[in-house]
Amino acid sequence: MNPEFRITSVIPHRHPALLVDRLGEVEPGKHLTAYKAVSVAEPAYRGLAQGAAQEYAYPASMMLESWAQAALLLACWERPNPDVRTGQVTLGAGVRDARVLGSVYPGSVLVHEVTLVRDLGDTVVTRGSSSVDGRRVLEVEQLTFALRPAAELESLAEAAVLASP
User: Fold this and answer.
1) 0.85 surpassed by pTM
2) Which residues, listed in sequence order, are joined to residue 110 by a DSSP beta bridge?
3) Predicted confidence (pLDDT) at residue 21 exceeds the cutoff of 90
4) 52 backbone dihedrals φ, ψ, rounded to 5°
5) Model confidence at 3, in pLDDT bands (50, 70, 90)?
6) In this predicted model, which residue has the larger pLDDT, 68 or 2?
7) Measured between alpha carbons, how far is 69 from 42 in angstroms, rounded to an integer?
8) Whose CB has fewer CB within 10 Å in the chain, the N or C terminal residue?
9) If you write DSSP's letter for every residue of the chain in order, what string do you get?
10) Which residues, 6+ apart, have CB-to-CB distance to 44 below 8 Å?
11) Which residues are CB-neighbours of 115 under 8 A, at least 6 positions away?
12) Of 72, 55, 50, 87, nearest in space to 125 by CA
């Protein structure tokens, strides 16, 4: 299967929450390169005056989320689950030492590099960085994912609803 078409068959994110546009090199279980084109059509720029978006940096939280989706693609490449209601649900368990090193503006293409550090079956640890035109703009020392059975999480959610006033 062509890697570009693989994105939505691996992770559940869809427009407008999907923040990875295409894939480059993919070495399952090792490394992944993904791309995100930042555009004035992004939801983050809605409501700004015509042309004003060019003056506003892409939110750091969106940059990190885009990188995290690339990391999720690598973590789940060999165990895809685009339907979070079944199988294993991947949860972001923690980020350590994420540093924003520069600003990104509309018209830029983020290049996400992700390395799989450790795969323990139900826990996956990744690290990496993002750059624009060869300039590093984000470093992530560690992002940990936890994989849990959807049925288990659903029963916990139902119990929480029943217990609420």
Assistant:
1) yes
2) 36
3) yes
4) -70, -25
5) low
6) 68
7) 16
8) C
9) --HHHHHHHHS---TTT----EEEEEETTTEEEEEEE--TTSGGGTTPPTTGGGGSPPPHHHHHHHHHHHHHHHHHTTS----TTSSEEEEEEEEEEEEE-S---TT-EEEEEEEEEEE-SSEEEEEEEEEETTEEEEEEEEEEEEEEEHHHHHHHHHHHHHH--
10) 58, 59, 62
11) 30, 31, 126, 127, 128
12) 72
C-alpha dihedral sign at 74, 76, 81, 85: negative
- The residue type found at 87 is G
What tokens appear for 21 in the block? 């546009």
Q: Kindly tell me if the per-residue pLDDT of 127 is higher than 90.
A: yes
Nearest alpha carbon to residue 4 among 24, 27, 33? 24
Structure tokens at 100: 């924003």
Report residue 87 as tokens. 């199988």
Task: Quote the tokens at residue 92.
Answer: 């972001």
Dist. CA 104–CA 53, nearest whole Å: 11
- b/e burial code for range 106-136 (CB count within 10 A of at least 16 → b): bebebbbbbebeebeeeebbbbbbbbbeeee
